[in-house]
Specification:
Length: about 475
């Protein structure tokens, strides 16, 4: 098949998928389209890079891409301003995010390149604005799923076409004469893996919700939900295509499916579900400490089981090299100010890092070198806050709590070997913010018009325990 024909067929399929999507009657406002545009940019490469400007993995933006980011962010800020009464409620329930953003704003003051840090700060606030936009929808879970679904309808088929038929756009050259890696619409194989991971989670959850609501068996899924099945197949195909594969994303898919099934089994007993998850986490923590105490490495054991070397493809060596460079352990060099041109040049001179890394390949190490121990502490508070909130949500809205827990825990796992934290407009960081924050818990009935929620109309005061809302 010629590349042009493959692209034409993909466009036709995407159009059919959006027509099918338009027939869904989800209770979301038009503002979710703003969040969809932002999510698409988080999950792909910059607009200028499609015009032959090269692929940058450091989150840089220029020209048309800067204009696009600015316009979408301003639209998000305007929606947040219009919903300010609900936004204040959300922010009040999520005080760790206020500490975190207050700290990164202050850190710009001691950055070596304040202009670059300010640009990254604007994008970080854009992330927060879009998250607040989604969480102030009348049904936050439906809004998040709709946002992801709309974005993935475009990004997944294009990634297949570019990886298969447009190698100059959809593949990345590997060193040591290894086969080219598939990157699709993203900048790296790991970023494509993260995108496919999200697609699998979102479409599997959509199928599970429809089976639960419409009462049909799993054998009728291909007939009832053909587009979802096709997108799941395309995502699996992308995860296993090309030369080097994103092992972390593949592992996280299995972990997420296991957590999803475990929590489904405990749907009628949410308190037991919370205790079971806590026991699993404590058990893994104890195993990690025990293995390291006896001179081993749990990460090395997992890597070896996946056919990887104990250094996690050179990651542990990279971490040691960049930690030797870091000279500001408490406060860091300023928000996103570590990877200056001088630091990149210095790291590239190290023989084993001659390929030129632009991030730490670990979200926790990246947080430390960018923001110091204070930043790590604030990130830890946000993680704990998100976990507690997701556990509480299991008791009031099981589907919302399960969705948060599955994505929260797998996002934390992915950041062990991939840099999502604390990079603005990176799909892992954006996803983490979505599930780490509590929504406003409106008491409005789901059948009430969205206009009331957006205008800030509050539910009537409950005069007695038996009085209706």
């Amino acid at each position: 098949m010629s590349p042009q024909l493959a692209l034409l067929l993909a466009i036709g399929f995407i159009a059919a998928a959006y027509i099918h999507e338009n027939q869904r009657r989800g209770k979301t406002s038009a503002a979710v389209w703003i969040a969809t545009l932002w999510m698409m940019r988080c999950g792909s490469r910059g607009l200028d890079e499609w015009r032959g400007g090269g692929i940058s993995d450091d989150g840089g933006a220029s020209g048309i891409d800067q204009i696009f980011i600015f316009v979408v962010a301003v639209l998000g800020f305007s929606v947040v301003a219009r919903r300010w009464s609900q936004v204040k409620t959300v922010l009040g329930r999520n005080w760790p995010i206020l500490l975190y953003y207050g700290y990164i704003t202050l850190s710009v003051l001691w950055s070596g390149s304040q202009l670059d840090s300010a640009k990254q700060l604007f994008r970080a606030f854009g992330d927060l604005a879009i998250v607040l936009l989604v969480l102030t929808e009348a049904n936050p879970l439906e809004a998040i799923l709709t946002m992801f679904r709309r974005g993935l309808l475009l990004l997944i088929p294009l990634s297949v076409v570019f990886a298969k038929y447009f190698s100059e756009l959809g593949r990345m050259r590997e060193k040591n004469w290894e086969p080219d890696s598939w990157i699709g619409v993203t900048t790296h194989k790991n970023c494509l893996g993260q995108l496919c991971f999200l697609a699998l989670i979102v479409f599997v959850i959509e199928i599970a919700r429809s089976m639960h609501q419409r009462r049909f068996s799993i054998w009728r899924v291909p007939l009832k939900m053909p587009f979802e099945v096709i997108y799941i197949a395309l995502s699996i195909y992308l995860l296993n295509g090309g030369g080097a594969k994103s092992t972390t994303s593949i592992l996280c898919v299995f972990v997420a499916m296991g957590l999803f099934l475990l929590l489904e089994k405990l749907r009628s007993r949410p308190r037991l579900a919370s205790k079971t998850l806590l026991a699993l986490i404590c058990g893994l923590g104890f195993l990690y400490v025990a293995v390291n105490f006896f001179g081993g490495s749990l990460s090395a054991i997992v890597a070896s089981s996946q056919g990887k070397d104990p250094t996690l493809t050179g990651r542990t060596e990279l971490w040691a090299d960049i930690l030797d460079i870091d000279k500001r352990p408490w406060f860091g060099p300023g928000f996103m100010g570590f990877w200056s041109p001088e630091v990149k040049a210095h790291v590239k001179k190290i023989p084993r890092e001659s390929w030129g890394p632009e991030h730490a390949d670990c979200g926790y190490v990246e947080t430390y070198i960018q923001m110091g121990w204070v930043g790590v502490l604030l990130l830890g508070l946000l993680i704990i806050h998100g976990y507690i909130g997701a556990n509480k949500a299991l008791k009031t809205d099981f589907d919302w709590g399960r969705f948060r827990l599955v994505l929260l825990l797998t996002t934390l796992l992915q950041n062990v070997t991939e840099s999502g934290f604390p990079r603005p407009m990176q799909i892992l960081w954006f996803t983490f913010l979505l599930v780490a924050l509590d929504h406003a818990r409106s008491r409005l009935p789901q059948t009430r018009k969205l206009a009331e929620w957006e205008r800030g109309i509050k539910p009537p005061v409950r005069r007695s325990l038996m009085a209706p809302y």
